[in-house]
Amino acid sequence: MARPEQDNAPPPTRVVQDRFEACVYRAGQVARCPARAPLSRLSPEGLDILLAEGDQRVGQTVFRTECPFCHACEPVRIDVAAFKPSRTHRRVSSRNADLRVEMGPPVLTRRRVALWNRHRRGRGLLTEYSRRDPVGYQDWLVESCASTVEVRYLEGSRLVGVSLLDLGVTSANSAYHYFDPAVERRSVGVFSVLRELQFCAAAGIRWYYLGLWASDAQALRYKSSWYPHERLIRGDWQRFESRATDPARVDPAAYAAAACPPPDHHNGADTPAEPADGRTNHDCDGDPEAPLLAAQLPPDEAFGALDEED
């Protein structure tokens, strides 16, 4: 078992939020993911170090799970040079050969906010306290403390998927991906990984990070279907060469139980989530590409007029 390699110290960060919340992936579980803000913008080398240590990025912060009763979530990364597509992957590529793929800076439009909310609603990832408004999208998916690009997947002029990809020197991090539930049969999420792996191979990037995975979280199941891959388990990156030798695939129930005991083992410590803030969240399902103006937002969160077109 190899520990994350570090040539330099990790970039300095400070904790900006730390609380217990209800886990969105496992009913009855308590989640804790302290958010830390880098003291300066992450360099590509700094991003490599934090990803190797198990950090995830959301907006201007990074975090890693520190849940009190559960170790089910494991960071996943794919060895780009070693990856070989399966027959299923090749079928997905063929099914989506008509999609146009574009890359550019992350942007905010009504179409993106509406699609983001539809995706999360369809995956069961919206909670009472989820941010759903343009400010939430800006904070989560446009603002970044790293070098981030948006990868767009289009069916003609219709936006059907978006990835936010952080770029380091030896690493690329799939910080977030969402797609239109109406085209779920396309497997746009799987297709996005295939196309982004191609990009990584062409750019000489070794590791493609897929974020967190948990063996019994249906929304995350696709992340463990890429072999060979590595998962960060209790501080060690462990390599899994194939489905047949992966204990999470051989006996999923036992693997999940070992990582996370049932809620009744928690001695009543299951803590309900608290609201992220006092503001009301609203879906953004209006004119799909109308520009969002700073005047619609609180003064301290203004970000200027946005382009209407993709």
What's a quick, concise take on this entry?
This protein is α+β, with helices and mostly antiparallel strands. It contains seven helices and 14 strands.
Describe this entry's structure for a reader:
The termini are far apart. By secondary structure, the chain is of the alpha+beta class. The chain has helices spanning 44-52, 87-95, 110-122, 134-142, 188-203, 247-250, 252-259, and strands spanning 13-17, 20-22, 30-32, 35-38, 56-58, 61-63, 74-79, 100-104, 148-155, 158-167, 171-179, 207-213, 229-233, 236-240. The protein has a single domain (13-106, 144-279), classed as Aminopeptidase (3-Layer(aba) Sandwich), CATH 3.40.630. A hairpin with a 2-residue loop joins strand 5 and strand 6 (61-63). Strands 8-9-10-11-12-7-13-14 form an eight-stranded mixed β-sheet, sandwiched between helices.
Write the layout of secondary structure elements.
Elements: E1 13-17, E2 20-22, E3 30-32, E4 35-38, H1 44-52, E5 56-58, E6 61-63, E7 74-79, H2 87-95, E8 100-104, H3 110-122, H4 134-142, E9 148-155, E10 158-167, E11 171-179, H5 188-203, E12 207-213, E13 229-233, E14 236-240, H6 247-250, H7 252-259
Parallel strand pairs: 11-12
Antiparallel strand pairs: 1-4, 2-3, 4-6, 5-6, 7-12, 7-13, 8-9, 9-10, 10-11, 13-14
